[in-house]
Structures are given as structure tokens and as C-alpha cells.
């Protein structure tokens, strides 16, 4: 009997030791923060014109940061009623722009400016039509709390993301912390937006890669007009981005209803000035101008040909030649529109790494 007790005691002790050993070996390993640097690849001619894309020292591009930003960009959790994401008004097939004249917020209200496309913004240093933000991080911040857009609060967004089953781990991989805050959210969104580069068009093949067959005769005539008699190149510079990043009054109205840059600077000399947008994927980003008043590229060309209001306050110095009309023929206009359509990048408009990851 005593022998049986001894055997039972040994068995019990071994069971305890086994349990302790099992508990020790199943403890999760400590998390390791080891982000992977991400490089954005662009053609050499872009670097020759613009240099490498600038990156803020406190928000370098990483695979993990971009991946997190992509998920956030498409997540409707950022809006107050969970019905609207960044991608709601910036659709990939529309050049990350809104096909509507004015975007509609979660409360049903409409804005008073046309959404701007998110294309090649990594080289920009002023954002929105009135330039009120100087970084992509700042640009990503505003729509979340705008009462006629997502109408949310950052504390609410942070609470939702912090309690989510996946996001804390994704923030750790991207930034080394499981503690979510608004600063990290906009950093991730900005990282993703910096990957939205578009330089693969028929124009690029013709102009930079010396493929003489990439444009037809009408499109080539349109290019000559763009850089010549139509004077488009004075503001939409052929610097690969098709913008000079300036703020200009292009003579839309004699008495502008929207003060534009003046809203930000408070200077009367800035009244009616708006940011010169880039033209890449312009055929996909209709409607046009800050208020989306023109539905088609034909409308835009007609305006510059004969509709510029020379008495508009602070009208840009490049506009006077338009006052007497450009005398563009119907064929000129058709050729110019044909050329503008060669700036579409079909690969960009369908890139899988920019699409909804869900």
C-alpha cells in the first residue's frame, strides 16, 4: 500500500512539473518592431526633373506603414456613422477623385468645392484648393473631422481603432506601438498616398521614351498646341507633373464667390486664386475647376479659348492673352482634348496595391 502511495505522489508531482513546463513554453514571444523600408520606383526622367520624392524625417516610408495606410484609406470606421471612407470621395477608377461636382458628407450635406485627385502628391508642399495644409499628413487630417465630410472626432476614431481586433497589432508593425493616436493614423494615410504615383501613359512613351508611334497625328498636334498657341504649358508645366504648384486666378468669374487662397492668407491680393492642379489622368477626374463647373474637357478648352473674364480681381499674368480669344478652330480644340486624354495611366487606375485590401 505504501508503495502505491509513493507512486501516486510521484505521478502527481510529475503532473505539476509538466503543467509548469507547458505554461512556460507556451508564453508568447515578445513583439519585435522591425519595419521594412519601402522604395517608390519612378522613371529616371521623373527624378531628373523633380529629384527623389521628399520624405519627412519623422515618417519614412515602410511596407508596414503603407499597408496600414491602405487599410485605413478604405475603412468606413473613420466616419461618424461608419458609412464613408477616404475612398468614398477618392475613387481609384476616377484617378482617386470624385466623379460628382461636390462630395456628399455623412449628414447628407454637400461641400462647395470639387474634390482634388490624389496623384503624385509626394512632391507637393501645399494641399487643398486654398493651400491651407503644407503636408500630406495635414491633408489627411482634415476630412475626418470636417462636419460636412466624415463628421467624426479623433477621440472617437482612436477608440474604435484601439478596440479593434486587428489594428493595434498593425500599428505596432508600422510604428512600434500598440497605442493608437491621430498622429499615427494620418502618418499611415500619408505614407499610402505617397505611393500613388502615375507616370505610365502614352504621352510618356512618346515624349520621354521616344516612341513615335505612341501618339496619333491628332494627339501630336494637340501636344504642339499645348506647348504653343494654346498656352497651356505656361501653368501646367511639362515638368512631368503638369503643374507649377502655384496659386492663380484664371479668370473664371468677374466677382468670385469663393475667395480661394485668400481664405487661408487673409490677403486681398489672393482673392480668387486656386491651386494649379496636375493634369495626369485628367480624362478620369471630371468635373473640372475648384467648383466642378465644367463637366467635360471640351468645356474647359472652350473656356480658355473664349471665356476668360479679364476683369476678374487679381487675374493671373498669364491670362491676358486669353482676353482676346485664342482663335482655336474646332479642329484645334479636338486635337487638344485628344492630347489631354493621352495623359491617362491605365496601369495606375487598376493597380492592385492601391485597391481596397478588404
The dominant shape is: globular
User: If you average the pLDDT, what whole number results?
Assistant: 93
Q: What is the H level of CATH, i.e. the homologous superfamily of the largest domain?
A: Cytochrome c-like domain
Strand content: under 5%
Taken in chain order, the helices and strands follow as HHHHHHHHHHEHEHHHH
The helical percent reads 25-40%
Number of individual domains = 2
What is the number of helical segments per DSSP (H or I, 4+ residues)?
15
Fold and architecture overview:
This protein has 358 residues and is mostly helical. The chain has two domains: 154 residues, Cytochrome c-like domain (Cytochrome Bc1 Complex, Chain D, domain 2, Orthogonal Bundle), CATH 1.10.760.10; 146 residues, Orthogonal Bundle (Cytochrome Bc1 Complex, Chain D, domain 2). It is 38% helix and 1% strand. A two-stranded antiparallel ribbon has the order 1-2. Helix 3 runs antiparallel to helix 7 and helix 10 packs across helix 14. The longest helix has 24 residues. The protein is globular. The protein starts with a helix and ends in a 9-residue tail after the last helix. The N terminus is likely disordered.
Task: Give the tags.
globular; 358 residues; mainly alpha; Cytochrome Bc1 Complex, Chain D, domain 2; 15 helices
Can you give me a brief rundown of this structure?
It is built from 15 helices and two strands. It has 358 residues and is mainly alpha-helical.
Amino acid at each position: 500500500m505504501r508503495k502505491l502511495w509513493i507512486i501516486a505522489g510521484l505521478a502527481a508531482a510529475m503532473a505539476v512539473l509538466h503543467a509548469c513546463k507547458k505554461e512556460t513554453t507556451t508564453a508568447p514571444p515578445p513583439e519585435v518592431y522591425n519595419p521594412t523600408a519601402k522604395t517608390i520606383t519612378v522613371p529616371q526622367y521623373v527624378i531628373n526633373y523633380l529629384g527623389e520624392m521628399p520624405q519627412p524625417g519623422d515618417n519614412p516610408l515602410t511596407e508596414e506603414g503603407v499597408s496600414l495606410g491602405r487599410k485605413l484609406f478604405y475603412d468606413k470606421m473613420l466616419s461618424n456613422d461608419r458609412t464613408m471612407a477616404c475612398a468614398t470621395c477618392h475613387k481609384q477608377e476616377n484617378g482617386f477623385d470624385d466623379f460628382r461636382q461636390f462630395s456628399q458628407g455623412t449628414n447628407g450635406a454637400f461641400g462647395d468645392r470639387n474634390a482634388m485627385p490624389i496623384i503624385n502628391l509626394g512632391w507637393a508642399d501645399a494641399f487643398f484648393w486654398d493651400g491651407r495644409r503644407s503636408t500630406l499628413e495635414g491633408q489627411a487630417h482634415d476630412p475626418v473631422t470636417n462636419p460636412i465630410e466624415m463628421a467624426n472626432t479623433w477621440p472617437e476614431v482612436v477608440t474604435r481603432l484601439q478596440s479593434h481586433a486587428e489594428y493595434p497589432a498593425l500599428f505596432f508593425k508600422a510604428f512600434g506601438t500598440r497605442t493608437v493616436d491621430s498622429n499615427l493614423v494620418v502618418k499611415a494615410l500619408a505614407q499610402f498616398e505617397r505611393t500613388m504615383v502615375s507616370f505610365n501613359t502614352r504621352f510618356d512613351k512618346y515624349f520621354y521614351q521616344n516612341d513615335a508611334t505612341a501618339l496619333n497625328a491628332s494627339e501630336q498636334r494637340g501636344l504642339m498646341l499645348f506647348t504653343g498657341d494654346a498656352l497651356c504649358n505656361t501653368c501646367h508645366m511639362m515638368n512631368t507633373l503638369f503643374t507649377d504648384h502655384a496659386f492663380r486666378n484664371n479668370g473664371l468669374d468677374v466677382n468670385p464667390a469663393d475667395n480661394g487662397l485668400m481664405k487661408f492668407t487673409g490677403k486681398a491680393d489672393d482673392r480668387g486664386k486656386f491651386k494649379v492642379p496636375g493634369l495626369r489622368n485628367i480624362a478620369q477626374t471630371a468635373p473640372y475647376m475648384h467648383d466642378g463647373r465644367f463637366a467635360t474637357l471640351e468645356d474647359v478648352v472652350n473656356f480658355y479659348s473664349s471665356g476668360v473674364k479679364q476683369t476678374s480681381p487679381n487675374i493671373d499674368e498669364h491670362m491676358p492673352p486669353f482676353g482676346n480669344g485664342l482663335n482655336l478652330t474646332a479642329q484645334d480644340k479636338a486635337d487638344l482634348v485628344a492630347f489631354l486624354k493621352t495623359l491617362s495611366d491605365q496601369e495606375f487606375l487598376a493597380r492592385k496595391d492601391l485597391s481596397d485590401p478588404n
